[in-house]
Fold this sequence. Notes:
mainly beta
Amino acid sequence: MKKFIFVLLSAVLLTALAVGISAASDRDNVGFTYDVGDIYVPGAQYGVTPTIDGVISTNETYSDPVRIDNLNTSTAWTYRSRNLVDIDYSTTWDSEYMYIAAHVWDPTPFFSTFSPDNDDDGEGGSGYGGNGDVFVFSIDPLGLRAKNGRFYWESSNPTAWYSIVPMEDGSLVVYRGKYNEGDITDQVEGALVVDSASSTWTFEVKMPWSVIIADTAACLDTTVEELGYTVEDFAAIGADHNAMIRYMDRWFYSSSDPYSGYHVGYLDEGARFTISCNITVTENPLPDGTPASAGNAVDANLYGIYLHLDEGKVYTSGQYTYMSVAADTEAKIISYNGPTTTNPLIIPSTIDGKTVTYIYAKAFQKIVKGNVYIPSTVTEMETNAFYSCLGTKYYVVEGSYAHSYCVAKKLSYILSCEEHTPGDWTIVTDSTCSATGTKTQSCSVCGLVFKTEVIAKKAHTAGELVVTTVALCNKTGIKQSHCTVCGQLTQSITYADPNNHAFGEWSYTEAPFCKGGSKTHTCTRCNKSETTNDGITVCTAGEWKVIVSPTEKTYGARVKQCVCCNDIMEAQIIERTIDRVIDTLTIDIDGIGENTSYVFVAKGMHGDYRMVQNNKLYGASALRLQQNGYEFSYTVPEPGVYTIYIRFKDDTDPICYHVYVEIPEPEVNVTVDGMSASVEGLDDVKVIRIGYGECTAANIKQAEGYKGINASTINGADPYTINFTKAGTWTVLVEFNNGLKVIRYVTVG
């Protein structure tokens, strides 16, 4: 493969690259969801033959542009590519040429400096057409590879790759890869327009059908004569061609490049991805529409763009998609988009003022047990125009094409009038208080239902009023009634309840009740007060009330007070949650004897053996305890809560208690002076570490400018002065002999 040289990438292009990546990042998690699918391609003879100038004009008869983006694409080759490119693709045709046109939005535009046929590096040709961005078009005319049993990649699924390459000098190169490989720019006509301000480029290519048919024969390892198809077969109204689009998006890559987190690839390759769907997800039978999951596009079985050559343009109007032909006076129905349950379904004789003359295959699908009226304006219908329409009856005008069609296809039909005679109205669905009904009017001669109207809803039946919002002393409530038939709200009224108070706690005057006094409470909503004396003469204990909450290190307290005078009648101590608090990382355990079988130290507060095992930091067996003279000491890594669990050799219950290690963080101060800093608070220091940028204790050693200054170098200096080598933010980490680490971030320079 050629060594692609990207040294020409300018600062402006780098800026565009950064902006493009940022703008596209919100699409990263939006993957392939649908095929590009069918494109109805109008013939150039219907309108204006395109002028090959790189400008896609509205008066040129191209198909409506189809957006190619990450919703209908799949990543190719390495699965690592990122689809940052959008393409609007259009095409048209005539009896001699296929016209390919596209408008490309590429936030990282990179134009080629050479193509394989003017190789400057002497490393041989490439099937990809250039050393920059490349738009690749492949076509399988008439599905010939599928007809020849070609369903897989490369040797058994061949098509030519037409690489359309924008050059740095403003020219356009067309390079054919895979089969008949070589530069074919002189065999086609092409034009390129670049708009660097918007990171877009547009091209038009006029490609002879004769080139396509010759390449198709070569792909199938045969001659044009043996292939048995002519240009007239390829360029014919009604011809169907499978197609695919790829986009080679290349950019500079290196391990130190600031965008390398986005661009995963190789220096001479860049990131490649397929930007046209070659995976089908429809339910059609083989070979077109074979279900597959989105993955490596190279391994996909089928193309995902289906070009249908016709002489008209496609429109959508109401419930119909149709093709307009014959100087925009006729309409050929492609598909009916309305509900399949419509009964009857009256096909209009005109759409947008155009006479309906033709119905394509499968234009109407799965209309079951319905009635369909076909107007006499229809002069042709394809086989399976009414696909899977089981039990459907067709109303046709006697002597019309639709009449002959039903007879030939043995479809159930009823002869209908050209002009109908209105009969009586028939109620199909009566209305209720919650839903409208429908009524229809039929022709009194042929019976066709040709008019349907809505019957208005009936009045509701109101139920009893019930409270839905309770009234308060200072706020009205709501009562509502609902229809007993459908449940809809029929009435809503407000009501008052001035006695619905929310009294607060009692307050005592003169003396509490138990001392011969009185009490008063006040409504928290309307401030109404009530005073009473109920003759209480003895204190009555209330519920337990916590007055001091326990902590990991301190005890708590709770009391019961008289509900009248608040005298404390009973008090209890609440146990603290920690058995022992120490100010050193070393935990010493006394009282270890010969009966001890094991001692465990676990991080956190636990109460059972399983959790201690799951969080164990250290364990000492009976043998180790004996070797240590039954003395136990362990240094934990950091302050916090730890569990000590002791097991015994006999049936004595295990001991489990908790230790809280609390070591105040040393007061470390860092004072900056230009390119140096003074570090103060270094009593019992072990080492000072510095690194460029904001680092953690885990990654500071990998930072730029890392340096470790041990205690012997510091030599008791407090403060100690550090000189930095680069202006900016630095991390200063001070580690002490007791294991504590203090991090400070400073800005110098």
